[in-house]
UniProtKB/TrEMBL annotation:
Residues forming coiled coils: none
Name of protein: Amino acid/amide ABC transporter membrane protein 2, HAAT family
UniProtKB keywords: Cell membrane, Membrane, Transmembrane, Transmembrane helix
Membrane topology annotation: Multi-pass membrane protein
One of the Pfam families matching this protein, by short name: BPD_transp_2
PANTHER family in UniProt: HIGH-AFFINITY BRANCHED-CHAIN AMINO ACID TRANSPORT PROTEIN BRAE, HIGH-AFFINITY BRANCHED-CHAIN AMINO ACID TRANSPORT SYSTEM PERMEASE
Cell membrane listed as a keyword: yes
One function term, GO molecular function aspect: branched-chain amino acid transmembrane transporter activity
Subcellular location: Cell membrane
TM segment ranges: 7-30, 36-54, 61-79, 99-118, 125-143, 188-207, 238-261, 273-300, 321-339
Taxonomic placement: Bacteria, Pseudomonadati, Pseudomonadota, Betaproteobacteria, Burkholderiales
Length: 358
């Protein structure tokens, strides 16, 4: 027990010190860590839908987009510049507090998740995957074309001039000097994202061990048997879609604040596929495995930049570095899945036949 506590304390200290060490190698590495934390939130949310309830969702990036655009509209001059009535009420634009945006992003994304889940309750497997994939593409195309006749999303040009996050007067978009030590903006965002990830992990663990979590797992293993045992499968499925989507909405709102700019290009089908791959690669239904998969797959493309560059120069530029990087990622995933078909860190009790604990 003492060793476990010591490990947790050392792990916490390492996470707190990590961005300060990465600063010495450049802000790009801290930025990679920031994006990795956002992907961890996304993977944890999708794990509720795919890992717990067994519902394959290939349109999860849509909720990420909903959260990002919600924050963009509520913390930028976009609405005031395009709507005269809105400009009369808010001449300087709408600059909403973080404490309002996070719950609102979670609520709006959860509603969108329930709206997606409602017409797909009777679908399973490949058919469910196709419908959710279509939903994700519809949202992206909708955002891409909603610049006329009413300019709401600014179309493919995206929304810029988004406010940075401010907490108790501290602007995370500006450098902070503390005891003579400069802490960059990307480092400040790292600590905010870390707090949100820790909260997400706690919520996921509480859900996993609750009656709701066990109902989701019963539906995953055998929906007919779960219904026969008195579980309301309809409500449980809708709750899984809504709860998972809320994580994506919060992550999206933080992405919008962190980037200061959002556009439909950031929410392509490839993003959804990568998030699903994070859950599958790490270990479906196992929170530590999902976190590991998210960190590896979000950091791997950036690390492989330093491998793809030399390989491109060796071939006199015949190979495109970005394509080569994607090829290396795919090869790495194939090798891992061949060696570890249940994921890098699978759940100890995953599957229908559970081993008896002594």
């Amino acid at each position: 027990m003492k060793n476990t506590k010591v490990q947790w304390i050392l792990g916490g200290i390492a996470l707190l010190v990590l961005p300060l060490l990465l600063q010495f190698f450049g802000n790009a590495w801290v930025r990679i860590a920031d994006l990795a934390l956002l992907y961890v939130m996304l993977a944890l949310g999708l794990n509720i839908v795919v890992g717990y309830a067994g519902l394959l969702d290939l349109g999860y990036v849509a909720f990420y987009a909903v959260g990002a655009y919600l924050f963009a509209l509520m913390a930028s001059p976009q609405l005031s510049d395009n709507f005269a009535g809105f400009a009369a009420m808010f001449p300087n634009g709408l600059h909403t507090s973080l404490w309002i945006v996070i719950p609102l992003a979670a609520l709006v994304a959860a509603i969108c998740g329930a709206m997606l889940g409602a017409p797909t309750l009777k679908l399973r497997g490949d058919y469910l995957a196709i419908v959710t994939l279509g939903f994700g593409e519809i949202i992206r195309i909708f955002l891409n074309n909603l610049d006329h006749p009413i300019n709401l999303t600014n179309g493919p040009k995206g929304i810029g001039q988004i406010d940075s996050v401010k907490i108790f007067g501290l602007d995370l978009g500006r450098r902070l000097e503390l005891f003579g030590y400069d802490i960059n903006s990307v480092t400040l965002y790292y600590y905010l994202f870390l707090v949100l990830v820790v909260a997400s992990v706690v919520i996921c663990y509480r859900l996993q061990d609750s009656r709701i979590g066990r109902a989701w797992m019963a539906i995953r293993e055998d929906e007919i048997a779960a219904k026969a045992m008195g579980i309301n499968t309809r409500n449980m499925k809708l709750l899984a879609f809504g709860m998972g989507a809320s994580f994506g909405g919060v992550a999206g709102s933080m992405f919008g604040a962190f980037q200061g700019f959002v556009s439909p290009e950031s929410f392509s089908l490839m993003e959804s596929v990568m998030i699903v791959a994070m859950v599958v690669l790490g270990g479906i239904g196992h929170i530590p495995g999902v976190i590991l998969g998210a960190v590896l797959l979000s950091a791997l493309p950036e690390v492989l930049r330093y491998v793809a560059g030399p390989l491109q120069s060796m071939t006199d530029g015949r190979l495109d570095a970005s394509i080569l990087r994607q090829l290396l990622i795919a090869l790495a995933m194939i090798v891992i899945m061949l060696l570890r078909p249940r994921g890098l860190w699978p759940a100890p009790e995953h599957g229908k036949s559970l081993t008896q604990k002594n």
